[in-house]
Amino acid sequence: MNNRNRKAKLNKKSMAMIAAAFLIILAVAALMYYMDHRTTGTSEGSSKKVYTIDGEECYKKQNIETYLFLGVDSTNDDKNAKKKEQSVQCDSVILLVIDRVNKTFATLPLDRDAMVSLEIPDEDGNILGENTMQLALAYAYGDGKEQSCELAEDAVSGLLHDQRIDGYVSLSMDAIGAVNHLVGGVDVTVTDDFAGESGLASGQTVHLSDAQAETFVRGRKTVGDGTNENRMSRQQTYIEALYPAVIDHAKQDNNFVSNARKKLDKYMVTNMTDSDFSKIIEALSSDKKMNLPDIKYSRTVNKDTGYAEVEYDEDSLEGVVKKLFYEPVEEWPDDSDEE
After folding, report:
1. Which of 22, 63, 198, 326 is most buried per CB count within 10 Å?
2. pLDDT higher than 50, residue 110
C-alpha cells in the first residue's frame, strides 16, 4: 500500500473518531441539559441556584440593592473622637431594600436588642472568636468609624441569612436636629406623653422644631412605657414624615443632596457617594413602597446583665427575608403537555 492510500485511510479513520467524539460530547451535553432542567423544574435561568426559603423553592432576585442606616448613640459630634473607654452603640438600625426590576422599595427596622452572632476582632482586626450579643453592641466593638459600621453590617447580614449589603450610613443621633433643619421640620402626631418635654403632648399634631425632633426620636426612659419598641415606633413615624420632605426638597434643589452631605459630614460615616444617595432618593420618589409583615419576636431580660434581649421568630423572619430577596421558581411544563 502506497503512502497516499495509507494517509487517506488514516484521515478517514481520524475524521470518524472526531465525529464520534463530537457526537458523544453532544449526547453528554444534552443529558446534562435535561438533568439540569429536571432538577430545577424551570425552563429559564436553569443555571441559577435554587434556594428553599420558608418551605418554597426560590431564586434570588436580581438587581436588588440593600443599604444599612445606623443611628448611633453618641453625644460627640466629632466622628473621629471616639475613645477606647467609650461604648458607643447603634440605637437605630434600618435596612433599605430597593428592587430595581420591580420598581419597589421596602424599609426594615431591626430592634437594637436583637440577638446576633458576631466574630469579635482585636484592635488590629484579628478575629478573637465568635459571640452572641445585642445588635447594638456589634457597633461598639469597632473603632466608632468604618470598622464599627462593617461589624454592624456583618451582624445584620448574618441575621438575614447572609444577604449582601451594598452600603452603609452611620449617623450620630446628635444630627437629628440638623437633619430636621434641612427640611424645615416635619409634622407628626404625638402618641406618647413626654412629661412636658419640649412641648410634646399626647394627641397633638406638631410641626417639630429641631429640639423637638431630637426629643421625639431619642426619648425612651421617661417616655410612654420606656421600651425600645416604643422608641422604634416613633422613629418609624418620624422617618415616614421625613422622607417625602427630603424628596420634595431634592426635586426643588438639584444641589440638595450634596449640600446636605456637607452639613452632615461631621456626624456621618459612610462608604456611599453623592451619586449613591441621589439614586436612592430617586428610587424613593418614583418607586412603590412594599409593605412587610411584622417579624414576631420574644423579649426577655438577661438576669446576669440586666439588659433586654430580643429573639426573632425564625419562621417569621424567614418569611420577610423571602419577600425581600427571593422569588418563587416558575413551574416547568409537564412532559404530558408536549406533543
Report:
1. 326
2. yes
